[in-house]
Amino acid sequence: MTDKKHDAVDLAQENEACEGEPLGTTYHRGPVIMRGPMIPSDTTTGNLLSHEDSTDWLHMDPWRVLRIQAEFVDGFGALAELGPAVSCFGSARTPRSDPMYRAARHVGAKLAQRGVAVITGGGPGIMEAANRGASQVGGKSVGLGIELPHEQGVNEWVNLGMTFRYFFVRKTMFVKYSSGSIVFPGGFGTLDEAFELLTLVQTHKVAKTPVVLFGSEYWDGLMSWIEGPMRESGNISELDPALMVVTDDEDEAIRVATSTIGG
Ligand SMILES: C/C(=C\CNc1ncnc2c1ncn2[C@@H]1O[C@H](COP(=O)(O)O)[C@@H](O)[C@H]1O)CO
Q: Where does the source fall among the domains of life (predicted)?
């Protein structure tokens, strides 16, 4: 190449550089860089502020995940400073005249008198009884309610309450914030809560936590089946039945349920 030709190529390259970048301006969206035809016509802020006619997104999973996260954050925030606590589970249908209602009320009061917060599902029946006992002696009476179609908030004896949309978030709170559980007679909901906890302990997902089944007449049948067919068929270990203690004695229930709480 002659010297003249060299000069012409250099000049063309120089001119191009002066005109700007070959693909035009660079567009940034977070860590992503886009140029030329890859630049989108919308912007994240524009999307955020735009009016949407359809509200279908409210019922989609990404939005649901945010609601679940928010529920965890609210629950942790409400309970972080609770202190030692025991959960009392039991039927939502137990009438106030039932001896088990009376027992749950006594147990709630005795736990509170020992400085132990009482956590329940915040509903009627056994939950109300335990909350009532705890709050009447000036203790911490926690109700972790669940949004149900025909239920109205938490019972009137709760002095620290929160209503959850998701059962599994609420169950996390029971497990995380109580050192032991007392399970009064109940139905599916009660068994679900007891067996969730037992499964977590059995699989070493959580530290061994005392689980008291209160009311031998009610629970003996279940214990016989657990110690019989369930254990004999090898579906649980020989040691698993001992994860539960059955009693009719309020003070023994409290002693066992609070046994992991340090003095
Ligand atoms: C069915 C009735 C009320 C339902 N209201 C409830 N409120 C709060 N928590 C509840 C409710 N129902 C069940 N739970 C939870 O399950 C356990 C009791 O369930 P079970 O099937 O009655 O044994 C309880 O520990 C709660 O955490 C009637 O008015």
A: Bacteria
